[in-house]
Amino acid sequence: MSSWQDRSAIRQRVEALGPWFHNIDLAGVATAPAHFLGDYPAVKWRRFEHAIAPDLTGRSVLDIGCNGGFYAIEMKRRGATRVVGIDSDERYLEQARFAAQVTGQDIEFHRLSVYDVARLGERFDIVLFMGVLYHLRHPLLALDLIHEHVARDKLVFQSMQRGGTELAPVQADYAFEDIAAFDHPGWPKLHFVERRYAGDPTNWWVPNRACAEAMLRAAGFEITAHPEEEVYLCHRTAAPDDGAAVYPAAAASSLKDGGSGGP
Ligand SMILES: C[S@@+](CC[C@H](N)C(=O)[O-])C[C@H]1O[C@@H](n2cnc3c(N)ncnc32)[C@H](O)[C@@H]1O
Questions:
Q1: Is the pLDDT of residue 251 over 60?
Q2: What does each C-alpha distance from 97 to 47, 80, 148 come to in angstroms?
Q3: Rg, the chain, Cα only
Q4: 206 — phi, psi (to 5°)?
Q5: Best substitution site from 88, 95, 119, 204 to test ligand 1's pocket, by max atoms within 8 Å of Cβ?
Q6: Which of 29, 155, 199, 218 is 20–30 Å from 144 (CA)?
Q7: What are the tens digits of pLDDT across the range 134-172?
Q8: CB distance 135 to ligand 1 below 6 Å
Q9: Count of other CB atoms within 10 angstroms of residue 197
Q10: What is the pLDDT, as a whole number, of residue 242?
């Protein structure tokens, strides 16, 4: 039961913690009623929630880039035993802590970058990685780190996509002279944003559909469902033999010894 009963006190706190990206209903107070995407992310969630198990009892969930806590709260509402939300931005974490408090959900929140997930020292049954990839300067590294350190079974992934939605068949190899393949509309493309996109300087790399799917596979995630345009459900598999990009940090002495630093 939440200790926050007074709507005007909630409204005051919501305003003090704003601006919000997540529109969450806190005992009748909407946190971002004028969101440019409408009732976001509820409108998105409604389009893929059927693909997530309705009963998450006994499962652990990690929400990476949890923002105001919308998805973490939904996971807890489905009975997940343990939900951890991480975000690099303390302002959003404060919002998430407040939203969890008002809705009476027991969720752990930490300020942590996706690049530091190894510090959690734990794998989770379900990892949510929604709306973060295109905000990263090193997106494939982030997926590799999630695979290497925190994903046990399922990954729920979402990215903004731009460009075509066609998929070219993926061949095992391409001849050096095969230049045309790169111009196929279904070739994976990660569009680089040098300055801003939508006024946001943290939009760095925006994949087309083929690229979002290829990056997931390349990081060791098998796509099992595609319930919404931008949302993928994946199953963690072994990382591809030739794709492992994450290495344990080499011991300082290995350089002096002339060693490669590898095991
Ligand atoms: C567009 S919002 C997506 C929020 C939420 N996951 C969703 O799908 O609605 C991106 C979130 O990622 C967070 N973020 C950006 N870079 C991050 C990083 N390196 N590690 C963790 N979170 C990050 C931002 O602070 C922000 O809360």
A1: no
A2: 26, 17, 28
A3: 20
A4: -115, 115
A5: 88
A6: 199
A7: 999 999 999 999 999 999 999 999 999 999 999 999 999
A8: yes
A9: 16
A10: 62
Determine the average pLDDT of the residues in 205-234. Answer: 97
Specify the ligand 1 atom closest to the Cα of 63.
6
Of the ranges 1-5, 155-159, 218-222, which one carries the lowest mean pLDDT score?
Answer: 1-5
Question: Taking 80 as the threshold, does the pLDDT of residue 129 lie above it?
Answer: yes
Q: Does any ligand 1 atom lie closer than 6 A to the CB of residue 69?
A: no
* Token pair belonging to 196: 């801003």
Whether 114 and 136 have beta carbons less than 8 Å apart is answered as: yes
Under 8 Å between Cβ of 67 and 93: no
Q: Other C-beta atoms within 10 Å of 99: how many?
A: 25
- Spatial separation of the C-alpha atoms in residues 181 and 124, rounded to whole Å: 38
Q: How far is CA 82 from CA 3, 61, 121, 128, in A?
A: 21, 6, 15, 13
